[in-house]
Amino acid sequence: MEKQDTECPKCKSKEVVKRGFRLTESREKIQRYFCKSCKNRFVLDTAFFRMRNHEQMVTQTMDMYYSGMSFRKIADHLQRFFPSGVNHSTIYRWIMKYVPIMENFTEQQSVKAGWQLQGDEVEYKRRTSGLKGHKGVKEEYFIDIIDMDSRYLVSTDYQGERTNKVLNKVYYNAKRKVGDQVKVISTDGLVAYPRTIKKTFGLRIHHGGKIASTSKVIHQVIKSDSGGFNYKVERFHNTLRERTKVMRGFHGCITSAQTLLKGFEIYYNWIRNHQGIENLTPSELACPQVSIQGKNKWLELINRGYNGN
User: Fold this and answer.
1) Is the entire prediction scored with pTM above 0.90?
2) Which fold has domain 117-252?
3) What is the pLDDT of residue 210?
């Protein structure tokens, strides 16, 4: 048997060789290993360990969902081609499981940003009538910061309010990724933004309301009533609204909504080609240090997030 550069999970020995396969109903053959030191037989613990369905099916459903199909339409589609099929609730659970795993990788990447970021927020009215103790709808916000050059979503969050505490979290995360590359941050006229940018990016404001010449960044306030328009971030919002209008109120739970929208951020940054940047993904410009070779980008992001690399 050929010696492998694989570690035994039981004794941590590297005296490991391939030995046969484990046959599964849906995932075909899975490589089995044998440890010469402790005689342990095992298969590698991956992100799809003990999953009943093949990794290609899992990632295919994620791509169909974020491309615009509903959970039930995906389930109907799979039923036509796979005898066992997949329930629509199973597809939802796959997304809830694998989006945080991909986030472990994508959130750790530094961003090659241009000179300007645009920040804004989108208001959502999420249905809560199905939740215990709630009736009607709740007003919530998707807050985002986008790089002007690469169209990369540098930082996003979905919350029930847009207070300084919430905005600080989003802008601190952006600062962590871009460092001191940015010279201008454009936002609308929300009164919380100057204080947030001052706290996170080092904006200095005199008591008279003027920005100090020694400030690290310039805060550009664009007001719609004066004819201004953050057109690139607003263009993204149109794409976001087009997708989320059929998401059935984000399944009634804000945690679910946060995960679904984080998945869309990953899809927008890493999977979907952007026509405004010569059909590249935003991550190809913003994260040139990351090379994704395979055609199945979902699978590679899941594996990198699971393995921590």
Assistant:
1) no
2) Nucleotidyltransferase; domain 5 (3.30.420)
3) 61
